[in-house]
Design a protein that fits this description.
It is a single chain. This protein is of the alpha/beta class. The strands form 2 sheets. The protein has a 5-stranded parallel beta sheet, with helices on both faces. The protein has a two-stranded antiparallel sheet with strand order 6-7. Helix 1 runs parallel beside helix 7. The longest helix has 22 residues. It starts with a helix and ends in an 8-residue tail after the last helix.
């Protein structure tokens, strides 16, 4: 019999393979990112609610990651300040718009990546709708699995009942399985082994990889961080630090 660890690993691998097949959406999203970086613009990334913030942290100051990432890391939805509190705040209509104001997300044509595996909460939908109103180009990393089964009027939903995957310019399906947790345990009703963070982080890294490839194709050197823990890492990063520290709030 397959052990729990192998079962969990196999399921994650299957989901990641499904994301890797989202070639058209990843191509389109990466194109938006590459064009923005070529214009010397930042790529704004927000994870409106709870653990979705982890995908934002994944691409900030990341070895092998693109440097011009403006991570929107709002304390209100970060679980370090209270897990239930973050859940309450992500359900507050209007909150996400104020977060956008605080980070200055108001320049038409710039790119905003919205990462939320469920794609239905008030903050997520407010951000998507407001980004459209302000003229930002949006990439949504989410799934439709939850969006299609959570009924209208659920407290988890935005009052409009809208779904993230329907409100963005580019929808990257992260293929999150219904229920998130994928490993059943004998004698336990609730499955364990969540996969949403793997889905989100893999999908956003796929976008960054493809964007870097596109930059090379148009003759632009991709601005990529080197691990600061490697010999020579600090020296390799110095020019990027000087360029972006004044522009990216959470780099400094």
């Amino acid at each position: 019999m397959e052990n729990l660890f192998s079962q969990y690993a196999r399921t994650i691998q299957q989901v990641l393979e499904q994301i890797a097949q989202e070639a058209e959406a990843l191509e389109r999203g990466a194109g938006l990112i590459a064009e923005a970086i070529a214009r010397d613009e930042l790529i704004h990334v927000i994870g409106p609610g709870g653990h979705s913030n982890m995908a934002v942290e994944e691409v900030l100051w990341r070895a092998g990651g693109l440097a011009p990432i403006d991570a929107i890391l709002d304390a209100g939805t970060n679980v370090i300040h209270g897990a239930k509190r973050s859940n309450i705040i992500e359900r507050c209509p209007g909150y996400g718009i104020r977060v956008m104001d605080a980070y200055g997300l108001n320049r038409a044509g710039e790119v905003l990546v919205i990462v939320n595996a469920y794609g239905i909460n008030a903050m997520t939908i407010d951000v998507a709708l407001e980004a459209k109103r302000r003229g930002l180009k949006t990439i949504g990393i989410t799934s439709d699995s939850f969006a299609r089964i959570v009924p209208p009027g659920s407290p988890a939903r935005h009052p409009s009942g809208k779904n993230l995957f329907e409100q963005v310019d580019v929808y990257v399906n992260n293929h999150l399985p219904e229920g998130d947790a994928v490993v059943p345990l004998a004698g336990v009703e609730q499955p364990m082994g969540p996969v949403s963070t793997f889905c989100n982080c893999f999908a956003i890294n796929c976008l960054m990889l493809k964007a870097a490839e596109k930059l090379v194709e148009i003759g632009v050197a991709p601005p990529i961080w080197t691990s600061a823990n490697m010999p020579g890492g600090d020296e390799a990063n110095k020019a990027l630090e000087e360029k972006y520290f004044a522009r990216v709030k959470h780099l400094r």
